[in-house]
Structure formats: structure tokens, C-alpha cells
Amino acid sequence: xLMPLQPNSRAAxxxxxxxxxxxxxxxxxxxxxxxxxxxCVCVGFLATRWFSPRLAVLTRARNGLxxxxxxxxxxxxPILLVLLALPRTRxxxxxAPAQYRELLAFMxxxxxxxxxxxxxxxARQLPEGALELQSAIANYLARKAGTLANTGRAWLAGLLFAxxxxxxxxxxxxxxxxxxxxxxxxxxxxxxxxxxETFRQIVVAQFWIALFNTSLTAIFLLVILPLWGYKLxxxxxxxxxxxxxxxxxxxxxxxxxxxxxxxGLSVSxxxxxxxxxxxxxxxxxxxxxxxxxxxxxxxxxxxxxxxVMFVMEAVFGPxxxxxxxxxxAYAKKELQATGWV
Length: 341
Hints:
- With 341 residues, the protein is mainly alpha-helical.
- The protein has helices spanning 7-31, 35-59, 66-94, 96-112, 114-117, 120-125, 130-147, 152-174, 183-227, 235-246, 251-267, 269-298, 302-316, 318-337.
- Helix 11 runs antiparallel to helix 12 (269-298).
- The two termini are 39 Å apart.
């Protein structure tokens, strides 16, 4: 016959079980490719909590009604945005994999024509072995383009999962709190609350950094370059890539630099140089923001972040790059709370 646990032992056991459950849930999410849904759950929860008190003041609704109004608003905003923007962005949203497949094939062709794109004096300085490197890079880009050939349905399913996650987060935020909680429920609540705080510190800050980066890039591509008489192909796809890559600290900057400079080279060497100088300039500002905002809040150094990102990318693929800063910062926060680090 099992003896009942003492309150302290019960709380300690509940804490251990809550850690195991949350870690298992995060691993399952990564293995099943549900990271977008998880991020949208957090976005829906935080957005509903942000809207609720403001709607309570505006509508003078009861405290129990304002969270429901906030959840309804969070659920309706994406639908309204899609209805307003769909005529202009339908091709970008629905055919994104096809557009990026074409972009990768275009980049592969640009790499193979590198000598023709560069000024003759510079092209003559390239070593003979550079042709093998060009072929290797072009083949790599062509393989990546091939992997996007059958991802259209998966892309649409991902958008659906993201919206469902947003709804789950909004409904969770509108749910009335239940007190007091049993030991396991209390421990799980603490884990989830700490994970949400980490999300707010990292992902929300990185979102504004990515939006800042994309806005400046849009000005450069849509205003400055046309004033010089140049226009880059796949501009809208490049802007979406800039935003998505901007959500990945450090590595995202390298991706943006490489892609935009290579596409600029297809137009002119001087356009490629202008793209490189512009991107380095704005990314220097972004490094400063990253160091001040994210590094200061989470106490993560660059070497820690890069190590975790490369390991997570090796295990889970591109989704690991996005999840690595969030998961590592959360794990470190839990260890700091227990006094282990």
C-alpha cells in the first residue's frame, strides 16, 4: 500500500514531473513540426492579455467580459488582414514555396555566371579553382530548390496550424483563473508562465528587430534602388525572407546578406556592392540592439547562442534555428531559478 506523500515531498515531485512534461511537450512539438503553432499560441496569449485591460477601459465592460473581447479581437485581426491584403499578397502567401524555388534556381544560375557578372579586371583575378566552388554552390542551391517542389500543401497546413495556435492562445488567456491549484497544476502553471516570460523577452523583442530591419530593407529596395534606376527581381519574396530570417538572431543576418547581395549581383556588381554596404550598416545597428535588448535580458553571450543554434539546426533543421534562442533562454532561466547556474 502506497503511503501518502508529505506536502513538501509532493511539491518537489510535482516540480520534477512538470519539468519532464514540459520538456517532452517541447520535443514533441519540434519532432512533429509544430513550432509555428507553439509560437502563435504564445502570441495569441500575450496579445489577448495586452488587449483585455485596454478594451475594459474603452468599453467599460466587466472584468470577466474584457478578456473574451480581447480573444475575439485577436481571432478576427488575422482574418481582416488577410481579406484586406489578399488581393495584393495572394501570390506571395499561397505560392511562397514556388516563388522561393524560383529564387533559389535564379541564385544558382547567377553563381554559375559569376565571371560574366563581375568587371573583367576582377574576373581575371579569380583562381581557376573558383569554378569548382561555383559549381558546388550552384548544385547546393539547385538541390534546395528541388526540396521546395512539393511543399505547397505543407506550407498551407503550416498557416492553418499557426492560426489554430493563435486561437488556442487567445482562448487560454480568456479563461478565468482557478484558485487554489493542486501541486502538479501549480508546478505546470509556473513552468508555462516562465516559458511565456522568456518568449516575451526574446521573441517579441526579436520581432520588433526583424520589423525594423525589414522596413529599412523595403525602403532600400522599393525607393532608393529605383531612384538609381535599378530594380531587383523577387522583391516581395526577398522582403518576406528578410523578415523571417530577422527572427533568427545573428545567423539570420548572414542569410539576408548572402541572398540579397547575390540577387543584386545578377543586376549589377555596383548594385551588389550597394546591397552589401547597406545591409552591413543596418545589421551593425541590429547587433547593437540584439546585445542591449536580448543579451541584457537573458544573460546570453554570443558564443552560447551560436553553439545552441548550430546544434538545434543539426537536430531539427531550420526550425531549430528559430527555437534555439527561446528554448535555451528558458532552460537557463529555470536553472537560474533553482540556483544551479
